[in-house]
Write a structure and sequence with these properties.
Its main location: cytoplasm. The chain is α/β, with parallel strands linked by helices. Helices cover about 40% and strands about 20% of the residues. It contains eleven helices and nine strands. The strands form two sheets. Strands 1-4-3-2-5-6 form a six-stranded parallel β-sheet, sandwiched between helices. Strands 7-8-9 form a three-stranded antiparallel β-sheet. The longest helix is centred in the middle third of the chain and has 16 residues. Bound molecules: pantoate (PAF).
């Protein structure tokens, strides 16, 4: 597995491979890898010949500097996981390589109304930072396909909007959420959960599963009300939102007849903010 710290070295590696017709996949990550990330690598291998994984903790998408500081960075462990998974190359630039004129460089694109809903309400500017770095990673790799996890449902939507904005010819593949045996969605942030938090965190997947299992039996309002009631008696869990939304607009769903419905949740569990979702139909 090759490791690249600069765009130049990465481009030099990819150039002859692309010229010989190899298809390239990019798996962008911030490291602290788990089996969810490895499932992206595996799916990438089914869709391309050369797999590049980027590891870069992007400062411009953090609204809370403390969150950026405490973001886990177990690099040796990450590299071993990627090597075992058969990843071809890892791009791990430093901040100056990605933001030569400083992380406060100008960036603003229209991502549509959905930018300001859900996560956008709680993490102002987050999706500007995400699309800013993903555009830079796309420019560095110029992949044929790029893989993103469904767990960050809104992120995938924002990246697709960014792609449309720049008319980039990259296929986005969304990979299903990988869960622990008890239902907890895998996340780099789970490492921060105490034993009690870890148990309490199950309320997220349980409330989503309730909606999926009972969709036919209740109205949308009733489903949401009952799902929210799961949080009433869980100490140390603070619900930010639970919504059943249209998967294209993220606006609250108005009718069960809509074709693309997803239940999304965000909650603070102890000191750790978790998100999860389930596609209903
Ligand atoms: O999902 C993530 O890990 C990040 O938001 C991403 C897409 C790698 C951009 O920094």
């Amino acid at each position: 597995m090759e490791i690249f710290k600069t765009k130049e070295a990465l481009k030099a590696y990819l150039k002859p491979l692309k010229a010989s017709g190899k298809k390239v996949a990019l798996v962008p990550t911030m490291g602290a890898l788990h089996n969810g990330h490895i499932s992206l690598i595996k799916l990438a291998q089914e869709n391309a010949d050369i797999i590049i994984c980027s590891i870069f903790v992007n400062p411009t998408q953090f609204t809370d500097p403390k969150d950026l500081e405490k973001y886990p960075r177990p690099i040796e462990h990450d590299l071993a996981m990627l090597n075992d998974a058969g990843c071809n190359g890892v791009f791990m630039p430093n901040v100056a390589e990605m933001y030569p004129s400083g992380a406060d460089e100008n960036w603003h694109i229209d991502l549509g109304k959905a930018e300001f809903l859900l996560e956008g309400e709680f993490r102002k500017g987050h999706y500007q930072g995400v699309t800013q770095i993903v555009k830079k990673l796309f420019d560095a790799v110029e992949p044929d396909v790029a893989m993103f996890g469904q767990k960050d449902f809104q992120q995938v939507l924002m990246i697709k909007n960014m792609l449309a904005h720049f008319k980039l010819p990259i296929k986005i593949i969304t990979c299903p959420i990988i869960r622990e045996d008890d239902g907890l969605a895998m996340s780099s942030r789970n490492i921060h959960l105490s034993e009690t938090d870890r148990k309490n965190a199950l309320v997220l997947s349980k409330s989503l599963q309730f909606v999926a299992d009972n969709f036919a039996s209740y109205s949308l309002n009733e489903l949401e009300k009952q799902a929210k009631s799961f949080y009433h008696n869980v100490e140390g869990v603070e619900l930010d939102y639970f919504t059943i939304a249209n998967g294209d607009t993220l606006e609250p769903s108005k009718s069960k007849d809509e074709s693309n419905l997803v239940a999304l949740v965000a909650a603070k569990v102890g000191n750790t903010r978790l998100i999860d979702n389930m596609i209903i139909k």
